[in-house]
């Protein structure tokens, strides 16, 4: 009688260990990539929100500056002061940097009408006057500078 060699159809222990090792390396690399993608997504989202807030701030600032055409804009101690001189009242609008926030304050005479927080999470706020031009330099928390001539 002939003896037939029967081949086993199973994996050996070494093959199983190598397979588990290689798949675990692939899964770990995949998880690392997913975490880095998520971290970059969060950073891009925060920067996008910051850009939108800055655009909204400049839109509000343009509205405040050009609300009435008979206003005087001056720089006073690293802040912008807008004087509206009309026949009935004397309104002063001041835009200042306070506690990482840009604040607009409306006063009439000696009483405060309103205080508005215009922009949050600001590292530095600087008002520079050269000749007759007033420049507003804002540095956000990411270190990006925004320069605007008023």
Automatic annotation (TrEMBL):
Transmembrane segments: 12-38
Domain of life: Bacteria
Record's keyword terms, sorted: Membrane, Transmembrane, Transmembrane helix
Annotated protein name in UniProt: Prepilin-type N-terminal cleavage/methylation domain-containing protein
Naturally occurring in which organism (per UniProt): Clostridium carnis
